[in-house]
Design goal:
The complex is a heterodimer of chains A (211) and B (95). Chain A has 211 residues and is mainly α. Chain A has seven helices and no strands. The longest helix of chain A is centred in the middle third of the chain and has 30 residues. Chain B starts with 6 loop residues before the first helix and ends in a 5-residue tail after the last helix. Classes of the chains: A mainly alpha (211), B alpha+beta (95).
Chain lengths: 211, 95
């Protein structure tokens, strides 16, 4: 189970850095601030996945001075992931503010998320609410644009959120741990689909667009 | 509900008009760009100066009227814009 979780962290890092790379190309070619926020979000997420994965396989035990601070490194990884999810939600907030819809909702979320139990639980809770907000906003976007990819991302984020929720609600129950890992795996694969579509697009396929 | 358009979207709309409405190969006039681009005259003139300056549009004078054509650089920008717009839309974002 631990090995599967660590493998998931590295798959997550691969997916996140792939999305960040495409988004960064978008920043360079279109100077879009949305793409910059998307790239930043997935760089943070990928870095968090890498730190957690390396911590999980004990890579830091071989580096002198780091073996004692494994817990700090794992929490740093979790923090980076939370920042990544925040940036994902933040991208949506800017869209929301521009259309004056549900912006204040995000401000309310962390109030409910703060838990006195531990830093890790707080970070997990925040991540969960940020993803949930992303699901809500992506779902609203789908209701407008009817783009099947948007539905795919909303479903992927939904699976990630469900995985986080299971991990928060039942952190140490074997079958549920496996279930939440599978949910997060499916969610990550769904997030990767637009990257695949972008990478394998035929040249000139999108040149005809309505004004 | 009115749809908010980003600066990039407005530029893409202008470039798309310059590409699609240039049926006679002599370029598109500012009236056509205004009608299809749906922006004010003062904003359009500023945008056209920027787009010509950055090489995305080519400006030509024909019978005392300015005409605009999409340049090769503009075509590449438009292609990239449309691809990344689809990518951003996948994540529920506007480019």
């Amino acid at each position: 189970m631990v090995m599967f979780e660590n493998a998931l962290q590295f798959i997550g890092a691969f997916v996140a850095f792939s999305i960040a790379l495409v988004a960064y190309k978008g920043v360079r070619e279109t100077s879009s601030s949305s793409m910059l926020r998307l790239a930043a979000a997935f760089v943070f997420l990928g870095s968090g996945f890498v730190l957690q994965g390396l911590g999980g396989i004990g890579a830091f035990n071989t580096i002198p001075g780091l073996e004692a601070s494994l817990a700090t490194i794992l929490i740093a990884g979790m923090f980076l992931q939370t920042v990544g999810y925040f940036f994902l939600a933040f991208s949506h907030v800017l869209d929301v503010v521009m259309t004056r819809r549900l912006g204040p909702l995000l401000i309310l979320f962390p109030i409910f998320a703060i838990s006195p139990t531990s830093v890790e639980t707080v970070l997990r809770s925040l991540s969960f609410y940020f993803i949930l907000y992303g699901v809500l906003e992506t779902g609203l976007s789908y209701s407008k644009n009817r783009n099947p990819n948007t539905l795919m991302i909303a479903s992927g984020l939904g699976m990630l959120a469900a995985g986080w929720w299971v991990s928060l609600a039942a952190p140490d129950i074997g079958l549920l741990t496996l279930l939440q890992l599978l949910m997060r795996e499916v969610g990550l694969v769904a997030l990767f689909v637009p990257v695949l579509r972008f990478s394998f697009r035929k040249p000139g396929e999108t040149l005809i667009a309505p004004v | 509900m009115p749809q908010y358009r980003t600066q990039g979207k407005i530029i893409a709309d202008i470039l798309t008009t310059a590409r699609d409405m240039n049926t006679d190969g002599q370029g598109v006039g500012i009236t056509t760009l205004l009608r299809r681009g749906n922006v004010s005259y003062s904003r359009m003139t500023k945008l056209l100066v920027e787009l010509v300056g950055s090489g995305l549009l080519l400006e030509e004078t024909l019978e005392k009227a300015y005409k605009y054509r999409l340049s090769d650089k503009g075509m590449l920008f438009l292609k990239a814009y449309i691809q990344f717009e689809d990518f951003a839309q996948s994540y529920g974002l506007k480019l």
